[in-house]
Design a protein that fits this description.
Elements (H helix, E strand, L loop, with lengths): L1 H16 L9 E5 L2 H5 L8 H4 L3 E7 L2 E7 L5 E3 L1 H5 L6 H17 L13 H15 L5 E4 L3 H11 L4 E5 L8 E2 L2 E5 L4 H7 L2 E5 L2 H4 L2 H10 L3 E5 L4 H7 L3 E2 L6
Parallel strand pairs: 5-6, 5-9, 6-8, 9-10, 10-11
Antiparallel strand pairs: 1-2, 1-4, 2-3, 7-8
Helix pairs in contact: 6-7
């Protein structure tokens, strides 16, 4: 958890600078129903709809932030209590990342912290694919199965130019839009080696896999881009390249 620990150090410094460490206002967390989180998109194969992941909403004062996790929780706690968490489980990391995003939004440091809805996820996939194509790329890797993004990448680059990994056993080994979904536990190195750029879901910070992915990216000297609202605060503090075309304020 090297990256998250660095983020926590920076975050704690910001909290002290803004006199929020003794803040008595609680940060509240609650899991969102699929329709609250993503609205009513035409397609129904998003992980949040089929039940493998949930969005939790963190609220600090009037500011909201969404985080994807497989360990949704109802929780209320002070910033100081959240900073003291060990970040050892997906649930603890989800709470920390949600608190980070909601607080940075309150401080005016980030804006897009709420998930897009209805047909926006579909448009997001197309916009990301077109942006990558505009960079002259030929081969792209996707870490974290997102059906709208994968579909758009395949239509834009062709199925033979796309590699995908996922941690959900229900997806691993399956054919999605002509691309076989590889196991993220064992095939990350091959994915990174095969492509020019790796598009990574921000959920990797919550499930604890980002640092191991980054190790392979550095090893093979590849570029990477993080997508989604989950990592908005982390990307801001760490200066990481990110994209989230339709994230809401």
């Amino acid at each position: 958890m090297e990256t998250l620990h660095k983020v926590r150090e920076i975050f704690e410094g910001l909290i002290r600078d803004h006199d929020l460490l003794g803040e008595n206002v609680l940060i509240h967390f609650r899991p969102l129903r699929p329709e609250e989180a993503i609205g009513n998109p035409k397609r129904h194969d998003f992980p949040i709809i089929v039940g493998k992941e949930k969005l939790i909403e963190a609220q600090f004062r009037e500011k909201r932030a969404h985080v994807f996790t497989d360990s949704p929780v109802n929780y209320s706690g002070k910033i100081k209590e959240i900073l003291e968490m060990g970040l050892l489980t997906n649930q603890e990391r989800a709470i920390f990342v949600g608190a980070l995003n909601a607080t940075l939004k309150y401080l005016g440091m980030i804006e897009k912290t709420v998930h897009c809805k209805d047909e926006e996820p579909e448009r997001c996939g197309l916009e990301i694919a077109n942006m990558l194509k505009g960079k002259g790329l030929k081969r792209v890797g996707l870490i974290g199965f997102n059906p709208a993004i994968l579909n758009a990448l395949v239509e834009t680059f062709g199925k033979d130019s796309i590699r995908v990994t996922d941690l959900n056993g229900d997806n691993v080994g399956k054919d999605k839009f002509g691309v076989s979904i590889w196991d993220g536990r064992t095939m990350t190195e091959k994915l990174v080696r095969d492509v020019e750029l790796v598009l990574i879901t921000g959920t990797t910070f919550v499930n604890g896999t980002y640092d191991s992915i980054l190790k392979e990216i550095k090893r093979y000297k590849k570029d990477h881009l993080i997508y989604g609202v989950t990592a908005s605060g982390i990307c801001k503090l760490m200066g990481l390249k990110s994209i989230c075309p339709y994230g809401r304020s």
